[in-house]
Structure formats: C-alpha cells, structure tokens
Amino acid sequence: MLYSRQNLSSINSSFSIRNKISGLDFPLLISILLLGIISIFAQFSSSGGTFDYYSKSHAIRFGIFFILFLTVAFTQIRFWFSASFLIFLILLGLLIFIKFYGIQSQGSRRWVNLFVINLQPSELMKIAIILFLSNYYHKISESDVNRIKYLLYPVLAIMAPVILVLTQPDLGTAILILLSGVVVTWLAGVRWKIFAYISLAMLVFAPIGISLLKPYQKNRILTFLNPDTDPLGAGYQIIQSKIAIGSGGLFGKGFLNGSQAYLNFLPEKHTDFIFTLYSEEFGFLGSVLMVFLYSLITYRIIKIGNETRSIFGKLYCFGFANAFFIYVAVNMSMVLGLLPIVGAPLPILSYGGSSMLAILFGLGIVMSCNVHKNSAVG
Amino acid sequence: MLSFNSSNIASKTKTIGRRMFLLNSIKAVVLLGIFGRLASLQINEANKYRSLADKNRFRETKFAAPRGIIKDYFGNDIASNTRIYQLHIVPENIPNVDNLLIRLKNLINLSERKINYIQKKIKKQKKWENIIVNDNLTWSEFSRINLFLHELEGATPVVSIARIYKNNASAHAIGYVSEISPKDIRNKKYLKNIGIAGIAIGKTGLESTLDEEMIGSPGFLRYEVNAYGKKIKQVSVDEGSKGKTFRTTLDDKVQVFSSKLLEEVSGAVCVMDIYNGDIIAMVSSPAFNPNSFVHGIKKKEWNNLLNDRDKPMVNKAISGLYPPGSTIKTLTALSALENDVVSSKLYVTCKGYIDLHGERFHCWKKKGHGIVNMRTALKKSCDIYFYEVARRLGIDRLSATAKKFGLGEKVLQNYREEKAGVVPNTKWKIKEIGKNWYIGETLHSGIGQGYFLTTPLQLSLMTAQIANGGFKIQPRILINENEKVSNLQKYLDHKNSTPGNIMSADDQIFNFGLQPLFRNQENINLVKEAMFAATNEVGGTSYRSRHTNKNFMFAGKTGSSQIKRFTAAQREAEVKQENITYLERDHAWFVAFAPVKDPRYAISVLVEHGGSGSRAAAPIAKKIIKKVLERHESRVSYPNREQENI
Questions:
Q1: What kind and span of H or E run contains B457?
Q2: Which residue of B has its CA nearest to A310?
Q3: In the prediction, which pLDDT does A226 show?
Q4: Distance CA A15, CA B157 (A)
Q5: Does the N-terminal peptide bond of residue A169 adopt cis geometry, omega within 30 degrees of 0?
Q6: pLDDT tens digits, residue range A167-225?
C-alpha cells in the first residue's frame, strides 16, 4: 500500500502539462475567474464607469496574478512545502524592515518599496503563517503537539507578525493573521485548554506590551478599537454603507447606477466597501450570488483538502479555507454593520495588489495540492 | 520520503477532519447570519434605506410661482407680472473673479459696495453656489451682457418674472410686494414653510390680504448632489401652480383720472355704486411708486416716503381719520326726523352765533343765515340750525343713526390697515375717556366736529345709503364670480326693466328682501332733496361746482373739519383759511351722489388742509362724477360673469 503510493508519486513527479491541466479543480478555477471578472466590473463602476487608474490597474493585476496563480498551481507541492519556512522568514524580515524603512501613508507604515510595486508584507503574511504552521505540524507527531516545547515555535511565529502588524498600526490585518494562525494550530490538535492558558497569559502581559508602545501608536489602536471616538469617520461609513446596501433592494439599482457610490457618499468604495457598491447595484439577488460564489470557493478548497493525502496539504487547505472564509465574513459583516470597521479587504473584489497577490498565491498553493494531490511532500 | 507512519497520518487526519467539521458548522451559521442580514436590509428595510439614499442625493430648490394678477372691473391688469433680467454668477466657473467683476462694472451698473458684498459672499459660501449680481437689469444692460457673454465665463444671464404695477393710482388700494422678512415668516402661518429666499410677498393693501391665494404653490427644482453638496445634475422641475387671479370692482381709468386730480393735494377719493356697493375708485394722495419696492427700495427713497409731511404710505381712503364736518348734517337731520324730534318745518333764526349753556357757538357764516328751515339749513350748511337740532336730538340717538349708516366700523374686510373711526356717545366717552358727556359736545357733534372720526370710505358709504333710498349695502372691492346677486341689485334690475313702475318702499322691502335703514323713506327723500338744493340751487354750498348738463347733475354736501378752533380774534379779523399755516387749515370734504335722477353712484372727496369743502373738494368731485357717469354705460354692459377663466 505504502509502496504503491510511493510508486504513484514517482509517476506524478513526471506529470506532463496536459496531466497537470487535467489535475486542476475546474469549479474552483471558474469561480475564481468569475469573481475576477465581477471584480473588474465592480472596480469599473467604482471609478464612475471609467477605466481610470484604479480600474485599469485592478484588471491588469488580476491578469498577472491569475497567471501567477496557475504557475504556483503547476509547481510541485513539494517545493512549496520546503519553501514554507523561507517564505515566512522573508516576510517576517520585511515586516521588521518596514518598521524602519517602510512607506508611510495615511498614518500607518505598511508598505515596502519593491521598485516595481509597493508591497504590503502583512497581507502576504496572512498566507505565510498558514504555510509555516502547516509545515511545522506536518513534521511533528500528534503526541508532541500539546507539549510545551513544541508550542513555543507556533506561539512565537504567530505573535511576532501580529505584534509587528498591530503596531503599524493595522488592526484588521493583525487580527486576520492571528486568526489564520490560531485556526491552523487548533486544527493540528492543540487542546482548548492551551488556547485558554495562552489567552490568559496574553491578558496578563498585555499592559506591559502596551506600556512599551509609543503614545501615538496607542492612540491609533484605541481609535481602531473604539470607532465611537470618531463618529463622523467610522460611524458615517457604516451608516452610508447600510443605506447603500439597503437602498439596493431586491434587484439593485443596476450596473453603474449606484447613487451612493457614484455620488461619493460611500467611503473606501474601491477597497473595503467594494461589496457595498456591488450590493447597491445588483441588489439582494446579486449579493446572494456573490455569497454563494465565495461559499463555493471555500467549499472547493475544503474538498481539495479532504482529497489531499499529505498532512501539510490538508492543514494548508483547511487553514486557507478558514482564513479565506474569515476574510469574506469579516468584510461582509463589517459593511453590513454587524462588526466594527477594522479595515479588512474582500478577497479578489477589493482593490489592492498585495491582498490580491496573497489570495491568488494562496489559492495557487491550494490548486497545487489538487494537481499534486497524490504526491508526498517531504 | 514520508516522515511518519501511516497510522500517525490517519490519526492526524482524523483529528483535523473532526475539528474542521466543527469549523464548517460555524461557517454555515455565519453564512446564515450574513444571508439574514442581507435579506433584512435589502428586502425588509429596502424602502427605508431607499428614501435615506434619496435624501442623501436629492436637494430641492423652491422657486416662486407666477403671482396671481389683480385686474380691474374691465379685466385690465392693475398688478401683473413682467419679465425681468438678472445676472447670476457661479464662482466655481469663473477663471478670475476680480477680472470678471471689473469687466461687469464696465457693462452694467455695479457699485463698489455691491462688488465688496459679492466678494464677501464668494468667500463665505460654497464655490458652486449661485450669486445674484443684479436682480433687475435694464434691457440694454442685459443685451450688452449677452453680447459679451463669451468674455464673461462664469456669468449667466437669467430671465425671471417679477411684479409690475401699471401705475401709481392704485398703489394704496392694491398695495405692494417686497422681499419677505423674518418678521413675515414669524407672523404669517402660510409663509412658515415657503422656503424661498427673497420671495416677494404682499406687504400692504390687497397684495397683503390676498397674499396667501396669490402666491400660488411654489415650483421646485430637484437636483442630485454628491457627498460634498456639489450639484451633479438636474433631476426634475415642477413649475408649481400660479397664484389665483382676482378681479376688483375698481375702474382703472377712474383711478388714474382721480389720481391726477389729486396730484397737487393730499387727500382721498372714494366712488361707490349705491346699489351693489362696488367700489369704483379708491384713491389716496400723494401716491408712491409700488414698483420701487419689488426689487428692494433704495434707502433714500424710503426715507423720503417716511418723512413726507403728507404721508404717502398711508391709505387715506380707509386709514385716514377725519372729523366728518358738515357732511354729518345729513345724518343729524335724518336722525332728528326719524326720531320725530323735529319736523322739517322747524324754523330757526341764525344770527351767526348762539349762546347756549354759557358758551357761545358760532355759525361758519359770521353774518348769519337769518330764518332757515331744514332744507335751507342743509343747503346752506347752517351751523346754528343743527346746533338746535342736535340739542333736541341728543348724542345717543345721533350716534345710533350714524352707526346704522356705517360710521364707526370697518367698511371692508380686505384691508388690515383699515380703521374703524369713532362715533361718540355718552357710553363711549365714559368708557374711552372716563368723563361724562357735556351738552356742548352734542352741539359740536351735530355739525361733525368734536370726537367724530370718519374715513372717506365710510362717508361714501353713508352717502350711498342715503342715495339709494336708505337701504343697507355691503361694499365690496373684490368680485367673486360665484357670489349671489345682491337683493339690491335684483331690485335695481327690476326697476330698470320696468321703467315708470314705481313701487312703494314697503313693497320694495318685501319683494326684494331689502334692509331699510329708515323708519319713513320720506325723511331720506327730504335729505336727498336738500342735497340737490345744496348743489343745484343758488345759494347752495356747492352751487359753483354744479353740472348744468342734466346727465351729469349731482347732489352733494360740503364739509370742513376743524383742525384748530378759531380764536375770537381770528374770527373778528375774518381770517381766511388760505392765510393760516397749512397744517392748521381745515380739511375739506365733499360727499355727493349722481345722477340726481335715478342716482347710481356716491362719491366722497377729502382734501387735507384744503380749507373749505366747496372750494377745494367739490370741484374735484365734479370732474370725477362726470368721468364716472361717462363710463357708466360700458360698466353696466360689461359681462359681469365672465365665462372665460381669468
């Protein structure tokens, strides 16, 4: 049994392109393409029905990153397995680097100038943390999972980027990195109790951590945590977003007819509030279709995870599926007024190169798991 | 290559699978939550949010609908609307504001002050908001602007409409419109939500009382704005509905004619139809130019109006209060006859004065009239005779008759500025002054001096009600097309259709439901006869102003109301009115009805400080009466109930 699998994997390693293509999960691929096309229309509408800088670069980015997605998918899963740690380290290094040399914009230091693009490493960290932890838990035995010695790495690996991102400050991304990491750790079998202990310890040490922050950093985090201190900002955004979505009604106002977005009542319509714009123009039916599309993608990722034989692949797919779902759920809940505004983009639909790169890269690895589902990783 | 055995993998897979199942269940719940929220916002509350979104994006500017027109009896516009030319600028569209203003200064009348005001306004308001540079350009200014429009980027010539008054003759009767004030908004309910900045509203006269109906319902311009309030596009226009048009009983030609006659003096004229109470003319002098108020009156002009000795802003026909003077003698005589206090055959000797109750009362004629009866006394306006009549009659009975004939109360309901005047009696004096009535005051009242205060309109009503045979009429200035024909009008129509068939007074009252103001119509006829004598017989007070043409003959009574009693010295020196200070001269009155046979119109003329009624007022009345009678045929033949909508 074991032997034959090994045999199979050696055959797999010499896949032809044709075989690789047939190994793609087409429902997932088509859903992503569909989402990409919808996102280009949404950005086009967001730009007031013109191909301006935003809508153009969004379309180009989707094209480029979709090719990247296929490239990642066709790359051996074994490669991604062995590169996980390096990828994580590079991104951690970039996060530390931008603490000092990052590009500052709108009061927070999130970007690194890579000459071609300004990259936001925190976005990619959302994927890297999953990659790293899947790799980590792939390697240790189940009996060791709950031992203190083996908990140290994951805790450090999660906390380091979370704290770095939190102090940029970027509460939304920090929370998403934390959630992505915690979910993988939990899936790997870490007991509830341990999460409880760690949370408790964090609460105890939080005041010390906060005291180390500079006053302006504290202020920024406080404003994030309590948007009521800024009623005209966050409060206004939520009200306008609800008005836009609600006024869309059952069938929506029609493409390019979203008055709230078109007349600039809607804030951040290219990025965090792109779903609001879509929902205003396409109504309840369009929104449900969108939710269905995201659910379908999540479902296909989970399905691929189920079919992947390696623990790395499973942990990664499930971890990514959860993270992906969380991004969608947090963003939608946010614009629907169910959660406070924390600044979390909607996968693929939102404008933003780093976010799209991260999502398509992450999806690429999922697809690679499917293409190479029968290969061992290492 | 696998690091662990398969049992380890299987166990790990199991743990992962189990925990993933739990997470998937949570996902399902979250999805349900999002789905539910979407349904709640977009299906349940869609209408609420749709209206909120509309509230966000739509702004409305209201604009005034065309104001209702005021016409005269013949359908001629007295107050109507005209096209006006305005210049608006939108700062956002102007490349260089200073250059534009300099350029405009060369083209139109633009003062430094106005320029400062505009520059301040530009700084204060949003850059896309409209500023009116001039709200009433002349045609030549407007065409110059249009000619150079290509050089005036940001400036827009606009055609709008505004009130225009054809002449000043009806300035008081019609009133004027002017920009709404905060006080107007506070005091007038219908203006509370008008929401049109600077709308012209009626301030006086009919413009004020009919304002609510004439203002119409405002139109509005609905446009879309973005989040910063900038206008994006116009969405809809509602023209509103124009205000109601009113037809008055006034005859514009008579108004203008009377106004011309009064040009040199301060005074008032009222002409009334004695059967239906139609006010044919109501003119006050000096007049003002109502057009000056439409676009905001200049401070200097306003101050001149306010400080004018002759008070041009007061409608003297209804708000000017003057003692009726000898014109009241008609009622004194009538009251005494009606109350059987005296008979018309009472003879009194006039020596020029009479001593009563330790006081000397003078007749206007120093030498006295000799022995006079009632007819002669009225004809010559003998004061001594009416002192005696008043003494016998008493103030309370005189007061009752005066009230019956319409003195002491407002004649019309259409004017806020109308005054009621005073008809004194014993009760009135105790109540208003707190003192008992003196018999001497009765004598003064009997010749229309003392406490008596009347308006020219009241005296024309009094005269009309004597002239029509003593029947009550309800004067009116507005024609209500749906109004029932008055009983008196029916009576008149009957009389005209059956000439020669003279009904007794009782039959008239019974058949037409008339309201008599007399006990015995003979008494009314006697007064009318005496008035005829006063104008048309030698020795009558207004004999010099009579018409010899039978068609225009009228019957009238002069009067002069004292401003200041003559001192004994003045009386001795026979000081003439012309020789005393203007403001101390008597007001001159003349009331009359015409034509003498089958009278149809009553007139009252007041000339402030005119000296004597016969000299100052009667000649004016003479001319107006001729004019009114000349227009009688066209007036009665004008279709009273118009089928077309005006």
A1: helix B456-467
A2: B9
A3: 61
A4: 78
A5: yes
A6: 887 878 898 999 999 999 999 999 989 899 988 988 888 788 777 766 766 666 666 56
Residues of B in CB contact (< 8 Å) with A are 1-4, 6, 8-9, 11-13, 15-17, 19-20, 23-24, 27, 30-31, 33-35, 37-39, 41-43, 45-46, 48-50, 52-54, 56-57, 224-228, 232
- Closest residue in B to A187 (Cα) is B16
Query: Average of pLDDT values for A242-264?
Result: 90
- Cα separation of B294 and B200, whole Å? 7
CB-CB under 8 Å, A249 with B226 = no
Distances (CA, A) of A84 to A92, A125, A312, A367: 12, 11, 10, 16
What pLDDT digit, counting tens, does each position of B35-52 carry? 999 999 999 999 999 999
- Taking the whole predicted model, whether its pTM rises above 0.80 is answered as no
The whole-angstrom separation of Cα A129 and Cα A146 is 19
Q: From the list A142, A246, A377, which residue is nearest B49 (CB)?
A: A246
Chain A (57-116) residues lying within 8 Å, Cβ to Cβ, of chain B: none
Contact A354, A65 (CB under 8 A): no
Inter-chain touch B20–A338, beta carbons under 8 Å: no
Residues of A in contact with B226 (CB under 8 A): 263-265
Cβ distance B8 to A141 less than 8 Å, yes or no, reads: yes
Q: What is the structure's pLDDT at A255?
A: 93
Give the strand pairing for A103-105 and A108-113. antiparallel
| More confident: B107 or B170 | B170
Instruction: pLDDT band for B569, please (50, 70, 90 cuts).
Output: confident
Q: What mean pLDDT is reported for chain B? A: 89
Residue A9 has pLDDT above 70, yes or no: no
* Distance (Å, whole) CA A122 – CA A110: 7
pLDDT of B242-270, one tens digit each? 999 999 999 999 999 999 999 999 999 99
Nearest by CB: B34 against A9, A189, A336: A336
- Backbone conformation region of residue B241, classed left if phi is above 0, alpha if psi is from -120 to 50, else beta: beta
Chain A residues in contact with B3 (beta carbon < 8 A): 139, 378
